[in-house]
């Protein structure tokens, strides 16, 4: 089994493992439709899961193309970029 199939099956099993806990905690509020934001929140949950899975697939693909040190440096630069962008976006300076 290659890395991408392993990622797919582990993500699916993780979803199945967390589904009962989610249904017991957040599920009743979202599934009852008592809030006007339930559809929007459900869409955000779906988008979050799909983008995270896509990021993992991208990371696995990149790691096969470059060596681990290059990937680690790129990950560090990504974090610095996210921090600087959030400081500029929210206009927060220490």
Note down, in words, how this protein is organized.
There is one protein chain. The protein is an all-alpha fold. Helix content is 85%, strand content 0%. α1 packs antiparallel against α3. The longest helix is centred in the middle third of the chain and has 28 residues. The mean pLDDT is 85.
Descriptive key words:
85% helix; 94 residues; flat; mainly alpha; 4 helices
In short:
The protein is an all-alpha fold and 94 residues long. It is 85% helix and 0% strand.
The overall pLDDT average reads 85
Secondary-structure element string: HHHH
Low-pLDDT runs of 5+ residues are: none
Output the radius of gyration: 18 Å
Into which percent range does the helicity of residues fall? over 70%
Q: Give the percentage of residues in beta strands.
A: under 5%
Structural class: mainly alpha
Can you count the beta strands? 0
- Specify the biggest β-sheet: none
Question: What is the straight-line distance between the termini?
Answer: 48 Å
Helical run tally: 4
- Give the overall shape: flat
Q: How would you summarize the topology of this molecule?
A:
Elements: H1 3-25, H2 27-32, H3 38-65, H4 68-90
């Amino acid at each position: 089994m290659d890395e991408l199939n392993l990622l797919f099956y582990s993500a699916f099993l993780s979803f199945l493992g967390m589904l009962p806990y989610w249904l017991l905690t957040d599920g009743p509020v979202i599934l009852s439709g008592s809030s006007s934001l339930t559809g929007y929140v459900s869409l955000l949950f779906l988008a979050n899961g799909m983008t995270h899975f896509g990021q993992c697939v991208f990371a696995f693909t990149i790691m096969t193309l470059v060596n681990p040190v290059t990937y680690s440096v790129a990950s560090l630069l990504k974090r610095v970029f996210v921090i600087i962008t959030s400081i500029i976006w929210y206009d927060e300076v220490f």
